[in-house]
Write a structure and sequence with these properties.
The chain has one domain: 3-Layer(bba) Sandwich (Glucose Oxidase, domain 1). It contains three helices and eleven strands, in the order E-E-H-E-E-E-E-H-E-H-E-E-E-E. Helix 3 links the parallel strand 7 and strand 8. It is mainly β and about 180 residues long. The chain is globular, with a radius of gyration of 17 Å.
Length: about 180
């Protein structure tokens, strides 16, 4: 098995979407003073690699804590936006390049459990409107061979009423000979 971390590190001053809260991480307790270390974090729910709940863009839609935990993991594949006939059913789909609103009808038809990677804001809004959760700001998708299924894990914090959450997004690929 081969694990690929698809997450960006979270650090003070990292880039944030314009208008979102800036990320700040500071040491609040030290070993010297408290015999343990603890950090205080201030960040928006869409900082770094994150998942978006339908409530992010649609009032009254499902929030993170209302979604079953199995919605944040499962069999997935990296696909090309310009090849919708190659998108398999019953899998999460990830775009290594930006996918636009022109992909919305086919994705609605396939109803994947989740979609991620490069998504235009219009496409993300459309997917969330159909109850399809989205993962954004992923890295290293190019390390996953196209056309190969893998297991994806992107568990959020269980934030009550949460519209999104940073995640540790991970791909698990079977090595040649393990299949």
């Amino acid at each position: 098995m081969r694990w690929i971390d698809l997450s960006r590190p979270i650090y003070s001053g990292m880039p944030a979407y314009p208008g979102d809260p800036e990320v700040s991480i500071e040491v609040a307790h030290t070993y010297a003073e408290h015999t343990w270390e603890l950090r205080r974090m201030t960040l928006g729910t869409h900082a770094g690699t994150h998942v978006d709940a339908p409530s992010h863009m649609h009032p009254g839609a499902a929030s993170l804590d209302e979604l079953p935990v199995e919605r944040f993991c499962g069999k997935a594949r990296v696909v090309r936006a310009d090849a919708p006939d190659e998108w398999p059913p019953n899998r999460g789909l990830f775009f290594a390049e930006t996918a636009g609103i022109e992909c919305a009808a086919r994705l609605k038809e396939l109803a994947p459990p989740f979609v991620g990677g490069g998504l235009s804001e219009e496409l993300e809004r459309a997917l969330l409107g159909h109850g399809i959760i989205t993962f954004t700001d992923l890295v290293e998708l190019e390390r996953i061979p196209p056309g190969v299924d893998f297991m994806f894990f992107g568990f959020p914090l269980r934030i009550a009423g949460g519209d999104g959450s940073p995640v540790r997004a991970v791909a698990l690929l079977e090595e040649e000979g393990e299949r």
